[in-house]
Specification:
CATH superfamily of chain B: Aldolase class I
Order of helices and strands of chain A: EEHHEHEHEHEHHEHEHHEHEHEEHEHHEH
Distance between the termini of chain B: 35 Å
Shape of chain B: globular
Number of domains of chain B: 1
Structural class of chain A: alpha/beta
CATH topology of chain B: TIM Barrel
Shape of chain A: globular
CATH architecture of chain B: Alpha-Beta Barrel
Distance between the termini of chain A: 47 Å
Strand content of chain B: 5-15%
Number of strands of chain A: 14
CATH topology of the largest domain in chain A: Rossmann fold
Largest sheet of chain B: 9 strands, parallel
Oligomer: heterodimer
Strand order of the largest sheet of chain B: 5-4-3-2-1-9-8-7-6
Chain lengths: ~425, ~270
Amino acid sequence: MTNAAPQPNSYRNQPDAQGHFGQFGGRYVAETLMPLVLDLEKHYRAAQADPAFQAQFDDLLEHYVGRPSPLYYAERLTEELRKDAPAGKGAQIWFKRDELNHTGAHKINNCIGQILLAMRMGKTRIIAETGAGQHGVATATVCARFGLPCVIYMGATDVARQQPNVFRMKLLGAEVIPVTSGAATLKDAMNEGLRDWVANVHDTFYIIGTAAGPHPYPELVRDFQSVIGKEARAQMLSRINRLPDLLVAAIGGGSNALGLFHPFLDDDVKMLGVEAAGYGLDGNEHAASLLGGFPGILHGNKTYLLQDEDGQITEGHSISAGLDYPGIGPEHAWLKDMGRVEYTAITDDEALDGFQLLCRTEGIIPALEPAHAIAAVAKIARDMDRDQIILANLCGRGDKDIFTVAEKLGVEM
Amino acid sequence: MTRLANAFPADRAALVCFVTAGDPDAASTPAILDALVEGGADVIELGMPFTDPMADGPAIQAANLRSLAAGTKTADILQIATGFRSRHPDVPLVLMGYANPMTRRGPEWFADAAAAAGVDGVICVDIPVEEDASLGPALRAKGIAPIRLATPTTDAARLPAVLDGAGGFLYYVSVAGITGKQQAVQASIEEAVARLKASTDLPIAVGFGVRTPEQAAAIARVADGVVVGSAIVDIVAQHGANSSGPVRDYIRSLSSAIATARQTTNA
């Protein structure tokens, strides 16, 4: 089941020809990169119009990634949350199971799309940035699959705290370069990725991991991730012949949320994006760009950023390394300002509770990123009617996070 | 704008010198700028520090972080510019940096403040012509030149767009890469400058990786200006608050090489 074409007043017809989502997005890159970014757009338009490209993408998603991912009714979680809900309250909770994808998260959907595009453009070398390492692993995976050399930039701080993923990338044949500038986390890795790209424009393709960066990245990452929402929409209609009342997804850069939300944007479905509140939104130790930031320009796009009054970027904090980024994809910035999607934030402690709740009630160990979405679902479900449906995106599995969680819970491993 | 137009003499190339404002601290910058002028700099590029200087190599990255760690604010940079203008009424001053610190309070605010501080031009690394509306109109309304960059990837089809609305001079980034790394081969610079000159009357200044008097002289033979940045920033990194003397000596070595560069060719 596919959606009808977007209407003129649709929420699904962004960005404009210049890559702007309202005042957000755009192509704020150095002149050296500008011809490349224009070339990428040209090739992406050609790929979009080429049925063979779509067929290859679909085939790899089915047989290599393992799509479609299941749509799952979380019966015990639903019942658990109904226990202290008022009479008649406690919405049904469903999950889109993207944690069951090959490599354990939604990131691979985008990497498949981008490496096909890279090969179409004749590029012979792949670079990427990574924070927690999930995008790095997904990129290293597709590079191994297609035999392309792969360089992953990763903040030295993240290299130290995400050793299993560093080893995974190396097993897959990638070169992992620790970045020591700045706070040595995701934003510094992205700076270094851009520096590599600008120096190797002739042969290198930069696989950006989220729906951010210069146009057309926010659009093409969203499009590749929209497989999540397209499947979920069709699955919902086929299983229970109705659409959900509320979609919920965690947001770092925002690609899993956009992937789920975008195919539903013109439907009568509410949406909630969940940012990382870290130690709380009242201090500076959070990663909630939309709720705690201001519009600005970084990494190729205009969007909400954590920044001071002089426009210097401030360091985010989240227990989840995947949400620990001071920016957000520009389409989310637009959807927030348009009022189409509501945004909230969940603290580290609440996310830990959500993490454990899902482990105990459903036998699913989620990543810390969707644990934020689960915590938000737990708050909101008890205020919704029993016949209402929440669909949350379980965008990654928690194997990578068990050390972090153990430490927070005071368990020695 | 007049100051910039006068800075590129017909008989020799201009020396364009970059330092990061507030490196090692805001109090040290005025003396370093004076040393640039005394050494023979024709145009000053004052770098606005940014937490995420993604087009810069290690030397200027470190300078940015030193400046911010010392507490440099936008207000300090404007004050440095204002002081420079009162001491050097005729030397053109250009602010160079990234979009976010420049546009944080709105493009009009920045253009007003820069104009009031006596700034002649602005180079914004991450606002290509496609996003000119974010800053260009505000600068032009205040008589500040939006100085554009051209690179080895800027082909003939794209060049007219890059030049549309440009002012001051055209900064030719001779290497596809980040600042301070390697220098382009001379032949490629000569070819590029000839190509650019065919398309614009703006002076062409060539930079990226220029370090020695010999390199500066070689570029000075073909271009209207030579841009030096990382090499100066390296001296400041080494000498800190006592950089004036070494900076002046170094700039003097470049400016004298440039002064005689074209005579050497003709001889």
